[in-house]
Structure formats: structure tokens, C-alpha cells
Amino acid sequence: MIQPILIYLFAALLLSGLQFVNRRRAASNMLTTLFLALQWLLTAHAVSAIGTTEAYFFRYDGLAVLMTCVLTIIATAASAHSSHYLTSADMKNEGVMRAQYNGAMQLLTMALTMAYLSIHLAMTWVFIEITTLSASALIFYRRNAGSIEATWKYVFACSISLVLVYVGILFMGIAMGEVGASGLSVDELSAHAAQLDTFWIKLAFIFIFVGYTAKMSLVPMFTAGIDAKDKAPTPAAAMLSSVVMNAGFVGFYRMYGVVAQTDAKVWADWVVLVTGLVSIFIAAVYLVRVKNVKRLFAYSSVEHMGVVMLGIAAGGIGIYAAILHLVLHALAKSAVFMHIGHLYRIFGTKEFAGMGQYIKFSNTGTFIIIIATLCITAMPPSGLFVTEFTVFKSLIDSHLWLPLVVALVLLTVIVWAIARDMFSLVFLPDTGSEIRRAEPARMPWYEMVFQFILLALSIWLGMCTPECVANLIGDAANIVLTI
Amino acid sequence: MTDILLILFSITLFYFAIANRLMTYVNIVALQGVIICAIAILSLREMNIINLATILLETLIVKAIAMPAFIRHVILKNKITREAEPSVPNYVSLVITTTIVIVTFLISQSFETKILNKTFFVTALSGIFSGLYFIATRRKVITHVICYVIVENGAFILSMAMGNEMPLMVNLGVILDVLVNVFLLALFINKVGDVTGDGDIAHLNKLKD
After folding, report:
1. From the list A122, A145, A292, which residue is nearest B168 (CB)?
2. Pick from B151, B165, B191: CB nearest A163
3. What count of other Cβ atoms lies within 10 Å of the Cβ of residue B194?
4. Does A230 share its domain with A351?
5. Contact across the interface for A163 and B165, Cβ inside 8 Å
6. To the nearest whole angstrom, how far is the Cα of A207 from the nearest Cα of chain B?
7. Are A236 and A364 in the same domain?
8. Of A91, A225, A414, B51, which is most buried with the most CB atoms under 10 A?
9. Which of residues 58-97 of B touch A (CB under 8 A)?
10. Distance between CA atoms of A140 and A134, rounded to whole angstroms?
11. Considering CB atoms only, which of A133, A150, A174 is closest to B115?
12. What are residue A52's phi and psi, to 5 degrees?
């Protein structure tokens, strides 16, 4: 009998292929609906089959199931926003562009799902490579100078990063070969972890970690992601700043789970800690001076991933908090990016200089922006407040006082910078002379509903995490903690 | 014999560091493709024949013939200036490339290995880091693509050192080569050239804070 994961893979590839060749809107909507149904079916299957392995390479473990659930929710919201985005954007060759957009979006969703579920280092790498190619088709959507530059940088930086990951995986293979073992699945690696030579482990870890920083939006490879999120259509930017970053994290975390079983753990923790702190620092520096709302939230993603790294490095409860932080950040950040699409429809620009007094244009939008700003800056009632607080507590538990103080100072600057820009956007008049649309655009009801759902989930899951979600996170954290 | 080919590969890196013309870069990359093909024939003897044939086809046809030919075509089509115009003097690049090779050699002396030929390790890492250095010090988009191929060649050499034990990884390396190269070159470089006119990276710097 063919296993469900393979049915999903082939069906998703087929639907995405059909999207690429189809030029009719009605058929395109039908294919999107079919794909979403397939995605929800796989998610339901993943939830019901927790702990099982399929086709040797894929396992429905806590981390994978959690990330797949988040992806499915965000992909559904992104698809709803895409339908409005594609109808409202005045483009030539509408049929071709819609086909490429929808096909690439489905391919991206499929590749992310498979990357989450993969427990084999090489297979994860393959699907993350596919996310690069499909995401670049989305960034390229508008085909103007800006999107070409962003796509070029994204493809180039991600390709180099993935070569580094590839080399890192080869080093892991050498480490296994040295002890007479073979195989690159996390089970096989974990089984031999204690015997592996620390030299190869460190070399492999540094290559894999640096490689995946392009996807995770961390120092040193974060720059390509910033331009990509700025230039991609807003539903695609919502995916790039949430679930794609999570895929990079999963790739890193699977490797970290192996390293955590070796003598290289302390060294790896320092690497992760320093990377996290430098990322928060870089985010703070840019957030103070950034003039574009999409880039503002793109840099905010760098900051949040930095916080996640602090939690991972601190260990203990920090790991639990870091994983929950990823989930909540993905939900809140995707809602923000989706709402930026509406801001653009009203103001015709993404620059803060051309945006102001949003409260005059949309009461609902204003409410969403304020809630979203609270969520992203991790202010109560944001669920991210709980997770950041727990990360800080874990830093205290680990006696990492200096990193804690540095992070707190930088986060204060970041909160100020984001709040300054966002509250100016809502309440103060604009300072520029950009042409504003004559009629305030009305936000479709379903966009509003999806944005509220995403933000509400981000608050609820943080403030009162349901037991089933806590169990999934616990299972994911145990990859590192049970050693 | 493999060692001689690997040393020859390292020498191409030094030559790349001091070369001035884009066409020389293209020729160096084509030569690297031929060298890698020869290394594959010599070192992947235990691999099954279909796998080996795919790898040979990829190295010889894609790396040594198709890519250099396509890069030449893009240079001519977009009328890109033939001078490479590196942002640092050539002698500095030569010193840095030499330093990279020496440091990777010293690293290779710091560990014991039963399964890895250390010459592969030194050559591969030298290729990867020199390629990254060349990317950082060259301004044209087309030069970045050429330098990316050098990075990729470095990774491919390392995969061949382990090819008999891990054929899956070598095949994945081939897929990476083909997918990314086709994507970067055939689909994209043309578009960049259309917009920027001369393929100069200086035109791709509008997105910044």
C-alpha cells in the first residue's frame, strides 16, 4: 500500500503542475481549493499518526506536526489573501502570472511540509532547496527592477547557503564513516552520536548552521531574506517571514539534536548564543532607521529568531519557550504581512513617509495594527510576552547574565522603534508627498477574519497553551532535553 | 594521479586570483569541469555504472561545456565589459587565496582520518572559501555566477571523496548543480541583463536601508 506521505507528495506535485499550465481563473480557484483540502487532510493524518515514520525519510514527530499545523493555517490564510491580491493587481498576462504564482505557492507549501516531516539531513536539504526555487518564483512575481534585484539576491544567497549545508552534511557523513557507520537520518546519527569525532561534528554543525541562517533570517546570511520579504507579494511575504523561517529552524534543530548528544554541545550553545545576540543587535540597528513598513517587520523577524536562539542556547525551559515562540511569531507575523497588503491598497506605498492617520481610513484595520504591534513587540496580552519572559528566565537559570542584559537593552530599543513607527502610521499625519488613492480601499471580510484568527491564535496559544499543543512542544523539546 | 588533478584544481584557483579578463574566468571554470570529470572517473570506481554515467555527463556536459558556453553567450549578448574589474588588486587576491590553501592544509594536519583522502579535503575547502572570497571581491553579476560555480566545484570534490560510501549525496550534488545552474543562468541572468543592461552588480543595489 502506498503511504499517505507519498500520496500527498505526488498529488501536491500534480496539482502544482496543473496550476503552472492552467490559464483559467475558475480552474485555478478549484485547484487551489483541492490543494488546500489535500493539505488539511495530510495535517489531520499527521495529528492522528503522531510518532509514526513513513517512507523511511519522514516522521510525524512533535516538531513536524506542530510546524505542519501552523503551516496549514497560514497557507490557507495566504491563499485567501492571494485570491484578492491577484484580482486587484493590474498586471499584463494575468493568466500566466496567476498560474506561476499559484503553482509556486503550492510547491512552496508542499516543500515546507516535506522539510518539516523529514528526519533525514539530506532529504530536509532537498526540500529546503525546493523552497528556495519556489519562493524565488513568488518574489519575481511583479517582474520589475526591484523584484529582480530581490530575487537575484535571494536565489544567490540561498544557493550559496545550501552549498554550505551540503558540505556540512558531507562532513556528518565523514564523521559516520570514521566510526564504521553510515546513514544520515537523525535516528542513525543519534545512535552513533557518542562515538562521533568532535572535530567533524563541529565542522558539520558550523557549516549547516551558517547555511540555514539564510532561511532563518539570522546573522550572517539574513540580508537576502529582508529584500525578499520587501519585494514579494504580501501573502508570499507572510509565508517567507513565518513558515519558511520555521523550515530553516527545523533543519538546524534536527542537526542540533544530534550535536546535543555529543561533547560539542557546550561549544554549539555558545555559537548559537552569540549568533542570537548579534542578530538582535543587527535588528535593533536597522529597526531604528528603517523607513519601509515591510522591511520593518522583516528586521523584526531577525530579532525574534535571535530570541529563539537565546532560548535554545540557554537550554531547559528555554527550548520549550523557543519552539512556542516560533509558532506564535509565525502566526502574528503572517497576520501583519497580510495586513500590509491592505495598507498598500490604501496608501499606494510601503514607505512610512507616505502613510499616516490610518485611523481615518479603517477602524478595523487600526484595531488589527494595534493588536499586531502589541503581539510583535511582545507586550501583554501577546503570547510572545510569555515566551520571551520564559526565555529570559532560562537565561537566568543558566547564569547567562551578560547576554540577558544585552538582549534586554536591545529589545527595549526595538520595542521603541517599532511602536514609534506603527503608532505614527495610525495616528499622525504622513510627512511625504506620495500620491494617495482617492477612495479608501475596503478590506474583504475574509481577509479581516483570517487576520483576526491568526492574531487571536498567537495570543491564546501563548497565554493559555492547550495541553495537546504543550505535548507537541514537549515532544519537540525532548529531542534535545532527554539526553 | 587523482592527487595531481586535485593540485591542478588548486592551481586554477591561483590563476583565477590573478586573471583580469572575464573570458579567462570562463575558461578556468571550463577547465575545472574537465578536471572534476577526470577525478570522478578515477575516484568513483565502486559506483554503479548508471550513477557514474550521470555524474560524468553532468560534470563534462554541464560544467565543462554548457555552462561556460552559456556564460560566454550572456557576456556577448549583454555586451558586458570584458575586464573583470576586481575591487582589490590581484596580488592581494593571490596572497589571500594562498593563505586559504595553507590554512586548510594546516587544518587537515590537525585530524586523523581512516576514510578521507586529505588532498580532497584541502582542495575542496580551498575551492569553497576561495570562491566565496572571489564573490565578495568582484562586482559584476556574471562574475558572481562564475564564482558560485567554483564554490559548487569545491563542494562537488568533497562529495567525490565520499562518493563510494554516500552515492546519494553525490547525486544530490548533481541535482543541486543542475537545478541551481539552470535557474541562475538560463532563467535569471538574462533577466538581470535585460534590466541592468550590462550585468553590473552596481545596478542591483537599490534595496537597502
Report:
1. A122
2. B151
3. 12
4. no
5. no
6. 11
7. no
8. A225
9. none
10. 10
11. A174
12. -90, 155
> Measured between alpha carbons, how far is B175 from A447 in angstroms, rounded to an integer?
39
Final residue of a structural domain among A216, A237, A263 = A263
Residue corresponding to grid cell 497580510: A338
Same domain for A246 and A320? no
Q: How far apart are CA B150 and CA B33, in angstroms?
A: 10
Smallest CA–CA distance from B131 into chain A, residue: A160
Judged by CB atoms closer than 8 Å, whether chains meet at A173 and B169 is answered as yes
CB distance B206–A146 less than 8 Å?
A: yes
Print the domain residue range for A440. 264-483
pLDDT tens, residue by residue, A114-123: 999 999 999 9
Domain map of chain B by residue range? Answer: 2-203
List the single residue in A129, A160, A166 with the smallest CB-CB distance to B148: A160
Grid cell of A217 as nine digits: 533570517
**Other C-beta atoms within 10 Å of B1: how many?**
9
Longest dimension (CA), chain B: 53
What is d(CA A311, CA A272) in angstroms, rounded to the nearest whole number?
10
| Structure confidence by residue, pLDDT tens digits, A75-111 | 999 999 998 788 766 666 778 889 999 999 999 999 9
Question: Measured between alpha carbons, how far is residue A306 from residues A55, A297, B38, B90 in Å?
Answer: 34, 14, 45, 38
Q: Which residue of B has its CA nearest to A198?
A: B111
A166 with B176: Cβ contact below 8 A: yes
DSSP 3-state assignment of A213? helix
Half-sphere exposure of A320 (CA within 13 A, CB side): 18
Q: What is the pLDDT of residues B133-191, one digit of tens each?
A: 999 998 888 888 899 999 999 998 998 887 777 777 777 777 777 777 767 766 666 66
Rounded to whole angstroms, how far apart are CA atoms A335 and A343? 13
B49-57 and B22-43 helices, crossing angle to 10°: 170
DSSP classification of residue B173: H
Q: Which residue has the cell 575542496?
A: B124
Calculate how close chain A gets to B129, using CA atoms only, in Å: 10
Pick from A173, A197, A286: CB nearest B209: A286
Structurally, chain A folds into a number of domains equal to 2
Q: Which three cell numbers stand for residue A425?
A: 502610521
Residue from A104, A439, A224, A167 nearest B151 by CA: A167
> 3-class DSSP state for residue B116?
coil
Contact A152 B192 (CB under 8 A): yes
Residues in contact with B7: Cβ distance below 8 Å, sequence separation at least 6, in sequence order? B119, B123
Shared domain for A19 and A115, answered yes or no, is: yes
Show residues of chain B in contact with A169, CB under 8 Å.
Answer: 169
Q: Which three cell numbers stand for residue B11?
A: 592551481
Please tell me whether residues A196 and A326 are part of one structural domain.
no
> What distance in Å separates residue B91's CA from the closest CA in chain A?
26
CA B134 to chain centre: 11
Chain-chain contact of A152 with B183 (C-beta, under 8 angstroms)? no
Binary contact (A126, B175; C-beta < 8 A): yes
> Which residues in B125-169 belong to E strands, given as ranges?
none
Rounded Cα–Cα distance for residues A104 and A13 (Å): 11
pTM of the entire structure? 0.94
pLDDT (tens digit per residue) in B38-52: 988 888 777 778 878
Note whether A334 and A465 are same-domain residues.
yes
